[in-house]
Amino acid sequence: MSLPVPRPGRALALLRARTRATETTSDPLWPMRLAGDLRELDADWRESAEVCADAAWAARAAGNSVLGLLHPGQVTAAGPDPVAARTHRHLYLSALRYDVRCATLQSVAESLLERDREPVDCYSRALYAFSLLGQSRPEGLTVMDEVLDEAGDHAKTLHVLLHGLWLGLDLDQGAQRLLALSTRPPFDAGLDPIVAFRRAGALRRLGRYDASLAAIDRALDLLPMGDTAVHADLVRERSLTVTARDLHHRSLIPGGTPT
Predict the structure, then answer these.
(1) How far apart are CA 137 and CA 86, in angstroms?
(2) How far is CA 208 from CA 15, 149, 162, 242, in A?
């Protein structure tokens, strides 16, 4: 499934909505304004996911997490404005994902799924899959496969699933599934540093240490300058891989330190 072709001028309008949200997170009313902007554009779930994921991340980075502005009741309650409801849902669930609050995310998402008669949008279901995958719950794999049937090459949705697989250390074939997903369009060009970072972790879990180091070094090269928080995560992953490789090599040497 390919993404819909944007209407002329629509990309600019969405960029303005994103910029307005990400630059005003100190104002507690910014989620309401963003909901109004997306309502005016009649944004679909893909467009909402693109804007809300970035806005939730920017707010968290600025110390103004949306988790302090919205509460689960606002997110799960039925309302007359479906675009505003989806905006709040995308913001809140994304913020829970960034904080890795998997159990809470699962609870909120299941409340939504039980309430709504209409199917919940694909991105919200991806976030539900993340909550299960992150807890190594095998049913998360089933939800993930259902999401993949609809997501097509929507990068934000696929990133959510990659994140869940990366966290789920005890999932059946989890590392292999992550590697397969990381080569799916639009990631097949190999230009996304976060995808390379996730690949490095999966390769380390499989004991493919040289390939893991190559992936993390590529991620470091691709990462935009100045992204210090993510850079620290990449350096930590590289240190883990080097340590795991060295311990593995020692275990193969007679008299070496056992692992």
Answers:
(1) 26
(2) 40, 30, 19, 11
